[in-house]
Specification:
The complex is a heterodimer of chains A (275) and B (1184). Chain A is α/β, with parallel strands linked by helices and 275 residues long. Chain A is built from nine helices and eight strands. In chain B, 13% of the residues lie in helices and 34% in strands. The chains are: A alpha/beta (275), B mainly beta (1184).
């Protein structure tokens, strides 16, 4: 029997093959080869693309080496969303590898945050964890941790150390048995069809009557369009980590097992492929 | 953890039990009568039935309750007849007890009650002080009374022999009436009963205090209840200064009683010498003018309910101050309350008569947090899910008189507020006619904020109401209990006529009504005879019989063990049974979550996703390179060269990925020598042992490599704190496992050993290692079946999982990980010296040991500075005097001696100048691991048939000794699927013996050897696969003058260890004569021996050269053991210290060519608590 722990590993070690090509707008001294890389789904683009940067800087003029940013089919990719979310949202149901265009010029100030160093990512990552724990445990767990514990979480993500990360993260996933789950589920719902960056609301894992609430309950409340009646054709796909969990899946379980390292459950809602 | 039972009686007198693992009340169908009261302890349940007799229900156990009757046959020699039964006139009886003073012929022995049966006929005991006697069992002496010997001498003039016969208690799992043998002294029937006191004394075992109250208010104590006499012997009256209505006795020495007047009595002087106590002290009711109607006590708590149904908690109660210091008012309105094991609290709600559980009661917060209603259906109403809202509402009218206080009840839990409010609306309709007018506005207004005030006013206002209402005439309900029920009325009437405030009668009645137990007729009779406002409306009752939530009258949690990690499935957010069943239906689809469709879908999709996104792209570069990971810290290091001393060092572990993806590491120690920075390193893959070392002042551990084992010089390091040490040990141990590529459960061939701190290590003969972090001091293995025993004698079977403990969430499998707990005692000694002026004082000589010390006297151990053995253990009790010390104690626990250190004895003599007594404090560990508990019998030793590697045995022979010394044989253990529930076996078979045992071992061809507590050895005849229990015992003489301690049997070899540390080999054991002929001395300083299936001999030895600084024994292996030379010739080097137990019985590798099997260790979880939700989350693994 497969084990729930295996889910954590599968989630952590999920990889997306990507092909980075330099934008034709960039001026180069010689032609730039595309760069192929296996990206961890749970990490952040700017955290894992040092090699990409190095690769393309070799063919660029030194003065053009400003901040690198990525774009997929015209959409600038927000580095502060986990890679897996970006992929599910913009490129699922497309052929692999994922073709990402690399830019150095014309930073889209309106769409993207600057990411000058890894400490910016760290700050973003830690604030995610803190926000999630505020929802889950009124920040009690994260506040009980020491500075070095926070560092361990971050270093675990940065160095892709599953054990190191989970040794600490499991504390964030605990909850009092009698309550049946977290206080609120930290989740975000992303969609491509709206200008709203994402939907986030307070949502408990257990109903006041004591029922376990499911993914279906969550969507019914926040994105009813994602749930289709039996006879209707499917309009939306609900993706988490590249898979479509059944609507009966309890949200508490999802939150414990399919959350990103930032402790948020990222749900991407994309239009169903027409075929 | 085994499930235990909560008992309750509903208002109709039906008895139900609710298992901690269950979800419904089970009707105790065996009870043909209705019951009034029940009081439960773990082994039995006492009750008062409606016929006012007392009944006892003893839970069946696989170890029967047996009692040994004995008598002595005495004979004297005369020249004519030789030895004959013609004795001198001055002699004792021909048949007598051991002293000779009491005449005891065989025929005089009668069964004490019809609940007993004889096991067999009388037979002669041929065992004399651990030594076999000649046939006939005679022992000889010069004269009565004298010293007897087993040998007949020229001057032996008298002889005697012992006859024994066992009787067995047969009335188990059934209610039996306790014969009321003293009818003349018990004129009135019993009214209340309470059972407790089992924690006061260990001796005799199973000792219980049973208190009862008669209808006239007298208090009775049942004498001599213990394991061998579950029924007790006689009732003894305990004088009381008033009329008692109710009494409660806790597991410890607390006994409180309620007087008619509403005050409380506290029993003082309850102790191990006097379970009955000596005197009463009065404690005032918590609120003036409102008397107490009910009290419940635990170990350190007292709860009370006053007539206005308010609940009170008594502060500051403990064994030294049984009266406590003050009352604290609690939220909730209850009619009765009960305190169970570990001071957990149950109550019955005043309004809804539901059973409430007090949530959040812990040792540090005895008063708990909130009441939670226990809402599970009764077994009869499982299918009855159609409870409609209307019936729920009308349930509010059930107790006519009390509905008015509904608003307060809804305070209890917001969950049932809705129901309650609905009920509240209906209430006035039927009641309005007879309800007192001033009361109505308070009810209909839903404000219950001013609960206290309104409640008390309500009581007073109600007293003014004249007795009215439709009281039902008795003759409408002719019930046979009527004459019984008349008696409370008689008891009541004097107090009414005695000029007591009318309020009393009214409120007393409410008290009486809380025990509506004898069926509707009886209640009607009671209420009507007292002509009260509170009307029990029979007309309303019948139609709603089963649809309503049950109305409870009494609850007893004395046998119900709820711990902080126990998950109870008792609570739903709604009291409605309809909702209940829908909840169950829903949870059924989720609880076996492993099979749920959504989970399957996720597993499948995840692996599909991985395949889709990664399979064809594995040649791509990884975005993150696997890097070196370093953990650094400061530590102290025991310098390798002279002068040896602790020096501060920097300690670092570098981990990196090796060539084949396996991880490896290097340990660095950076130190300064002569102002020069230097370092020393050690490869993780060379580390063989990692073991914590007991050290008084520092948290030290030792690291061995093969080379360092030879040099007897491990690397010794000390961490700043114990926690830090455990962190490091855990990390190092994981690295060690990683570097050897070990994952998953240990193999069948593994050697298992246990440190003196109770951690288990597993060593694989193929030089691989894996550590299993559960503390168990005893483990036996064969064919992949592993059983272990905890310090608290709980038996555990290895599930074949791995991880748990500190592995939690890392490399652990969740399928076979269970929550484990263990309890053990920590001992310290109080020492005193006598001086002529002040007698014994705590002022010793300057040369004396510490006045508070450990057993050796070398270390100071005060009550305050003594800590649990490791940070994972927490205290669960206070310090108590331990009377169960070898050598005996006096009444205060003291042992006397001429000087320290010496042999101590329990009675003071003129030559004694020092004394000591032992204090014990219990501590508890909660962790997780791949072990499953085998309830319910606590064990002290266990053995499994060792087998060769190729043999397949369907039925694995497993023998065990219970902690009481009974020998047991486990049935149904198979090895077909290691680690599955078949390892668990089905049941125990009790093997009768004449004396208690302490060690047992079974050899490869079913040779069973056992050591009795008196040090004698026994061989069990005719044991085979077909006859797993054998037929009879053969007594084997011990080595001269030695008392044996432990035995281990391999393929053919039989080895024993005696109490002086000598190792003996049994000579002359052949298939035709398996008992052997004589003992041969092999070695001394041996603590434990384990013989493997190939007759390999491994021991744990003390005082092995070079390891004296390490405590607790070294593992040594016998060299030169060959099929023709089973004794071997010498010992090898030995590994490390700190071992407490080893078993090599699973290791059947031919030709063990390994130089030294490597061992590593790790510590138990550093954060074992709070993780109990892990297994629950993943599907509760109960029910295997």
């Amino acid at each position: 029997m497969a084990d729930d722990k295996d889910v954590l590993r599968d989630v952590w070690f999920g990889r997306i093959p990507a092909c980075f090509t330099l934008s034709p707008e960039e001026t180069t001294e010689r032609e730039a080869e595309p760069y192929y890389l296996l990206l961890p789904r749970v990490s952040y683009l700017t955290l894992v693309t040092d090699k990409v940067k190095k690769h393309f800087l070799r063919v660029m003029k030194a003065e053009d080496s400003t901040e690198m940013w990525f774009e997929y089919e015209g959409t600038p990719l927000k580095w502060h969303y986990p890679i897996g979310v970006l992929f599910d949202l913009h490129a699922s149901n497309t052929a692999l590898p994922w073709n990402v265009t690399v830019h150095f010029k014309n930073f889209p100030e309106r769409d993207l945050l600057h990411c000058s160093s890894n400490s910016v990512i760290e700050a973003h990552f830690m604030s995610c964890i803190k926000e999630a724990d505020a929802l889950k445990h009124k920040s009690q767990v994260i506040n009980d941790m020491q500075k070095k514990d926070h560092k361990q979480l971050w270093m675990g993500l940065q160095n892709d150390k599953f054990d190191q990360f989970w040794a600490m993260n499991r504390k964030l996933m605990e909850y009092p048995t009698e309550e049946g789950g977290f206080r609120y589920i930290p989740f975000r719902i992303y969609q491509t069809t709206s200008d709203r960056p994402f939907i986030q609301k307070l949502f408990r894992p257990v109903s006041p009557e004591g029922h376990t609430l499911t993914l279906g309950d969550l969507l019914r409340e926040l994105f009813p369009a994602a749930i289709c009646a039996e006879d209707e054709p499917k309009r939306f796909q609900v993706m988490i980590h590249g898979i479509e969990p059944l609507l009966e899946t309890p949200v508490q379980w999802l939150s414990e097992h399919l959350s990103h390292p930032g402790n948020f459950l990222h749900i991407s809602i994309i239009p169903a492929p027409s075929d | 953890m085994p499930s235990s039972l909560l008992w309750a009686v509903d208002v109709y007198g039906r008895v139900y039990s609710l298992s901690t693992a269950g979800q419904q009340w089970e009707h105790c169908r065996d009870a043909h009568l209705e019951f009034k009261r029940v009081t439960a302890v773990q082994q039995c349940c006492w009750s008062i039935a409606c016929d006012h007799n007392i009944y006892l229900y003893v839970h069946a156990s696989e170890v029967p309750i047996r009692y040994q009757e004995e008598t002595y046959e005495n004979q004297r020699w005369n020249p004519v007849d030789g030895f004959s039964d013609r004795l001198l006139p001055s002699d004792r009886w021909q048949w007598s007890d051991i002293t000779g003073l009491k005449h005891q012929p065989l025929g005089d022995f009668q069964l004490p009650s019809e609940n007993w049966e004889w096991e067999a006929d009388w037979y002669i005991d041929e065992n004399f002080g651990g030594e076999p006697t000649e046939k006939g069992g005679w022992t000889y002496a010069i004269d009565f009374p004298a010293t007897y010997t087993k040998d007949k001498k020229w001057n032996s003039c008298v002889r005697r022999r012992r006859w024994i016969r066992y009787r067995r208690y047969k009335a188990q799992d059934t209610w039996v009436k306790i014969p009321s043998e003293q009818t003349e002294s018990l004129p009135d029937p019993f009214n209340d009963i309470t059972c407790g006191g089992w924690e006061i004394t260990e001796e005799p075992r199973g000792c219980l205090a049973l208190w009862a109250v008669s209808l006239q208010g007298k208090v009775w104590f049942r004498c001599d209840i213990n394991h061998h006499n579950p029924e007790g012997s006689v009732w003894e009256e305990v004088p009381v200064p008033g009329e008692v209505v109710q009494i409660s006795c806790g597991p410890g020495d607390l006994v409180w009683a309620v007087l008619w007047e509403g005050h409380l009595l506290v029993r003082e002087g309850v102790g191990r010498d006097c379970l009955k106590g000596s005197s009463w002290v009065t404690v005032e009711s918590p609120s003036p003018g409102v008397g107490v109607v009910h009290v419940a006590v635990g170990v350190n708590v007292v709860w009370a309910v006053t007539k206005d149904h308010k609940v009170w908690f008594r502060r500051g109660v403990n064994s030294h101050n049984p009266c406590g210091s003050g009352w604290i008012g609690m939220v909730g309105e209850m009619v009765m309350i009960n305190v169970g094991l570990s001071d957990q609290v149950w109550a019955i709600g005043f309004e809804d008569r539901a059973v409430y559980f007090r949530q959040g009661v812990t040792a540090s917060e005895l008063s708990g947090k909130a009441w939670k209603v226990v809402s599970v259906p009764r077994d009869s109403e499982r299918s009855h899910s159609s409870a409609s809202a209307s019936s729920l509402q009308s349930a509010g009218c059930f107790f006519g008189g009390e509905v008015r206080l509904q608003s307060q009840a809804s305070m209890l839990s917001d969950a049932d507020a809705e129901t309650e409010r609905a009920g509240g609306e209906v209430v006035p309709t039927p009641e309005i006619g007879d309800a007192p007018k001033p009361r109505i506005p308070k009810v209909t207004s839903d404000s219950f904020i001013s609960e206290l005030v309104s409640d008390r006013e309500g009581q007073i206002s109600r007293c003014d109401v004249p007795p009215a209402g439709p009281s039902i005439p008795e003759e409408d309900h002719p019930e046979k209990e009527l004459e019984d029920r008349a008696s409370p009325a008689q008891v009541l009437s004097p107090s009414q006529s005695g000029g007591v405030d009318p309020q009393w009668s009214n409120v007393d009645l409410e008290e009486a009504q809380t025990h509506l137990t004898s069926g509707p007729g009886g209640d009607a009779a009671e209420t009507s005879s007292l002509s009260s406002v509170a009307t029990y409306n029979l007309a309303l009752e019948e139609p709603y019989g089963l649809d309503e939530p049950p109305k409870w009258a009494w609850v007893s949690g004395g046998g119900c063990l709820v711990e902080c990690h126990t998950q109870l499935n008792w609570f739903n957010s709604s009291t409605s049974t309809a909702l209940n069943s829908s909840m169950q239906a829903m949870s059924l689809s989720i609880t076996p979550a492993q099979t749920a469709a959504w989970r399957k879908q996720i597993f499948e999709q995840l692996s599909e996703r991985s395949k889709r996104e990664m399979e064809n792209f594995m040649h791509y570069e990884q975005a993150i390179e696997q890097s070196v990971w370093v953990k650094k810290g400061t530590m102290q290091w025991w310098r390798d060269w002279k002068p040896h001393k602790w020096v501060d060092v920097q300690f670092a572990l570098e981990q990196f990925s090796g060539v084949e993806g396996n991880k490896d590491g290097i340990l660095f120690i950076y130190y300064t020598f002569n102002d020069e920075k230097k370092y020393l390193h050690m490869f993780i893959n060379e580390v063989t042992i990692l073991v914590p070392v007991l050290n008084d002042s520092k948290h030290t551990f030792a690291i061995y490599t093969a080379e360092r084992t030879k040099q007897r010089w491990p690397m010794r390091l000390a961490a700043a704190t114990e926690l830090e040490m455990h962190d490091w040990l855990a990390l190092l141990s994981v690295s060690c496992c990683d570097s050897r590529g070990i994952q998953g459960p240990p193999s069948k061939q593994a050697i298992w050993s246990v440190t003196c701190k109770g951690d288990i290590f597993v060593s694989e003969p193929t030089k691989e290692l894996e550590a299993s972090p559960y503390p168990t001091p005893c483990a036996q293995i064969s064919l992949g079946v592993v059983w272990g025993i905890g310090y608290d004698h709980t038996a555990w079977v290895h599930t074949g999982g791995y991880g748990g403990g500190f592995f939690q969430g890392l490399a652990s499998s969740t399928d076979n990980i269970y929550t484990q707990t263990d309890v053990k005692s920590v001992y310290i000694y109080e020492n005193q010296r006598w001086n002529p002026v002040t007698g014994y004082t705590n002022r010793g000589l300057p040369t004396d040991r510490y006045m508070w010390s450990n057993a050796s006297g070398l270390k100071e151990c005060t009550k305050n500075n003594t800590k649990p053995p490791s940070p994972n253990w927490t205290w669960v009790s206070d310090w108590t005097i331990d009377y169960a010390v070898p050598g005996g104690t006096d009444r205060e626990g003291w042992q006397y001696a001429a000087d320290f250190p010496a042999s101590y004895h329990g009675n003071k003599t003129l030559k004694d100048f020092v004394r000591r007594r032992r204090w014990a404090r219990k501590c508890k560990l909660t962790t997780t691991g791949p072990w499953q508990e085998v309830p319910p019998i606590p064990l002290s030793d266990i053995t499994i048939l060792p087998c060769g590697p190729k043999s397949t045995v369907e039925q694995v022979s497993l023998w065990a000794i219970s902690n009481k010394g009974d020998i047991l044989c486990r049935l149904g253990v198979t090895s077909l699927t290691p680690g599955s529930s078949s390892n668990y076996g089905s049941s125990w078979l009790h093997v009768g013996t004449d004396q208690p045992f302490k060690s047992i071992s079974i050899g490869a061809v079913h040779q069973v050897w056992a050591i009795a507590k008196d040090g004698s050895a026994f061989y069990r005849g005719s044991v085979s696969a077909q006859n797993p229990a054998g037929d009879c015992w053969y007594h084997i003489p011990s080595p001269t003058g030695q008392k044996l301690k432990q035995v281990s049997v391999g393929r053919t070899s039989v080895y024993t260890v005696d109490e002086n540390g000598n190792l003996w080999y049994r000579h002359g054991v052949t298939p035709s004569y398996p008992q052997g002929s004589s003992w041969e001395h092999i070695s001394n300083n041996v603590r434990k021996v384990s013989v493997g299936p190939l007759d390999q001999v491994w021991v744990i030895a003390d005082k092995v050269q070079g390891s004296h600084s390490l405590s607790c024994g070294t593992v040594c292996r016998r060299l030169g053991v060959l099929p023709m030379e089973p004794k071997g010739h010498s010992w090898d080097y030995g590994i490390g210290g700190g071992w407490d137990h080893i078993t090599v019985r699973g290791n059947a590798m031919e030709a063990p060519r390994i130089v030294m099997p490597s061992l590593t260790d790790n510590q138990t979880a550093t954060r074992p608590l709070q993780t109990s939700n892990q297994p629950e989350m993943n599907g509760n693994p109960v029910g295997c």
